[in-house]
Amino acid sequence: MSSEAGQLLRLENVCKSYHKNLVLEDISFSVNRGQTVTLIGPNGAGKSTLMKISLGILEASSGKVYRDKSITIGYMPQKVMIDEVLPLNVRDFLYLRPNTTYADVEQALETVRLCELANQPVQSASGGEMQRILLARAILGHPDLLVLDEPVQGIDIMGQQEIYGLIAKIRDDTGCGVLMISHDLHLVMASTDQVICLNRHICCSGSPEFIRQDPEYHALMGRPMEGIAIYTHDHAPDHDHKHHEHHND
Known about the structure:
Number of strands: 10
Number of helices: 8
Helix content: 25-40%
CATH architecture of the domain at 7-72 and 145-155 and 177-249: 3-Layer(aba) Sandwich
CATH topology of the domain at 7-72 and 145-155 and 177-249: Rossmann fold
Oligomer: single chain
Low-confidence stretches: 225-249
């Protein structure tokens, strides 16, 4: 079966088992150009396993995974381990990515607003700066699909909003698709089109405005604290915000 126009990634009825232990059951979703899809769920829900299957790092036990034949993917891990005594500045850290030029590095640093750190040791970067460095690394090569694993891990709320804003701007400027793992719907709402609430199976999916009112989301993740601002956006207004799916055990 061929991909639909604009579709970068599609999973159909994907299951994954480890030693007869079912960790993902009947997962179906797609990511299109210019669209952000966010996976939310508790620890142990299978988010990282699903991301690895989407990347092609792991194979599904059953089901189908379709990727656009010419797709290029940029991946942002939660963190990287860098030897504290390794003499490596930010520019050279990014240049280590294969098939990268220094011009590419400068453009990526400009996109994530970190040009002033180019000559600084990468080990001296703050948590928020390191996440932007990893985002810069992910966008080198102008990928069709950005895959981001907890891109705001360990950053304060203001820094989180900045990262999510950068991701949305990159998506809008380049037309890439984004598949992202997040732990907090309320901050990611402004930059995502579809939310998939995962707990080994898809509990519910749809627009963030729908999901934040869905009882299954609250049963899984708890109700939001009073006083948390909910950020919304007008990206892709033709999306049907009422569309959702329910998958039962």
